[in-house]
Write a structure and sequence with these properties.
The chain is α+β, with helices and mostly antiparallel strands and about 350 residues long. The chain is built from 9 helices and 16 strands. The strands form 4 sheets. Strands 1, 2, 3, 4, 5, 6, 7, 8, 15 and 16 form a 10-stranded mixed β-sheet that branches. A two-stranded antiparallel ribbon has the order 9-14. A hairpin with a 7-residue loop joins β15 and β16. It is globular and about 55 Å long.
């Protein structure tokens, strides 16, 4: 991944070890529980891909695996997962599991599966390469809380928008999953039934990606009202970063029951929804009520904790520097926003 900083390009994730994520979760381990807890260390695959491989190996449903947060494909990431003790063979078979991309280590047991509520945040070590010199780096306290590229993949918002527009045929075509195509061979007109073959967690990602895109557009419009700001391009528009110190505030993750306390925010949100061809009520999905979302809130900015940086010679790019960034972010925040604000 590359980006602009004035007149030169910087690199992140040039090698796998340039992006390291260690999950920090709240785990109340017990001597004997219903779920086995493993530390999952992976590289070059995202969390869902890793869990699918594990579930396939163990011959158990994906829903028997719990996790607290989704981790990116790129980099070395460590997180905790839970596996339901439904079969006596599970403990032995996990101990035999081998993969070039995935490592599993048993850490204990829990009464309940790991879920999003257990996640506190993540510690990051990010290496930014191909820098011209020791550039002045701010002591960051807050950064804009955008959702980054990995939230959307290449097709997630398009699939989500098709669902919200109740065009389930189009949603099936764009998703183009093996399970969908198999279902349509048996019943070519049952697009809702075919789409339901995708695991619920994955289907919800499609809807959440639309919410995330609306949030990004909303935050960018509000920040662009400030005189001192800069733009950074991404696949679905522009990130706008403020050079001013702005007090944190909440913005909606739009759902069918979202209420607006600020008229300007409401006006911006309505404009964005209209541009996308949907309404608030679109988030109530009668054909698949399990995908309906009420709405939520998200901080416009995220606190950057334990921030440090160090400039070193870049051993992979001649006569260039690299910057090693270390910091902690609460759950739901994207480390790449730090890089883009500093170097984008």
């Amino acid at each position: 991944m590359t980006g602009n900083y004035d007149s030169f390009m910087y690199n992140i994730k040039q090698i796998t070890a340039d992006f390291v994520v260690d999950e920090v979760s709240k785990l109340d381990l017990v001597p004997q529980g219903n779920f086995l807890i493993y530390e999952l260390k992976k590289k070059n695959c995202n969390t869902i891909q890793a869990l699918q491989e594990i579930a396939k190996y163990l011959r158990i449903p994906l829903k028997f695996l719990g996790f607290a947060g989704l981790k990116d494909k790129h980099g070395i990431t460590t997180q905790f997962i839970s596996i339901k003790k439904s079969y006596a063979r599970i403990l032995f078979e996990v101990s035999q599991f081998k993969s070039e991309l995935i490592e599993l280590e048993l850490v204990g047991e829990l009464e309940n599966p790991i879920s999003l509520g257990d996640l506190l945040g993540n510690r990051f070590t990010v290496v930014v390469r191909n820098l011209e010199s020791d550039i002045s780096v701010l002591d960051l306290k807050l950064v804009e809380n955008y959702f980054d590229e990995q939230r959307f993949s290449t097709k997630n918002p398009d699939v989500g928008l098709a669902i919200l527009k109740k065009d389930f045929k189009l949603a099936c075509e764009i998703a183009n999953e093996h399970c969908i195509n198999n279902a349509l061979k048996k019943n070519p007109t049952d697009f809702v039934g075919a789409f339901k073959k995708i695991p619920l967690k994955t289907r919800l990602i499609y809807i959440h990606s639309v919410q995330s895109l609306i949030f990004n557009k909303l935050l960018a419009r509000i920040i662009s009202d400030n005189e001192h700001s800069k733009e950074v391009d991404y696949s679905f528009g522009k990130f706008i970063f403020s050079d001013e110190k702005i007090e944190n505030f909440k913005l909606p993750l739009v759902g069918f029951a979202t209420e607006y306390l600020d008229s300007d925010v409401k006006d911006h949100a309505c404009e964005i929804l209209n541009e996308m061809g949907i309404k608030q009520t679109s988030f109530a999905i009668r054909s698949m009520p399990e995908l309906s979302v009420v709405g939520d809130e998200r901080d416009a900015f995220i606190e950057v904790k334990d921030f440090s940086f160090e400039f070193l010679d870049d051993e992979r790019n001649n006569d260039k520097k690299k910057c090693v960034l270390k910091f902690f972010l609460n759950k739901g925040a994207y480390a790449t926003m730090i890089v883009k604000k500093l170097f984008g």
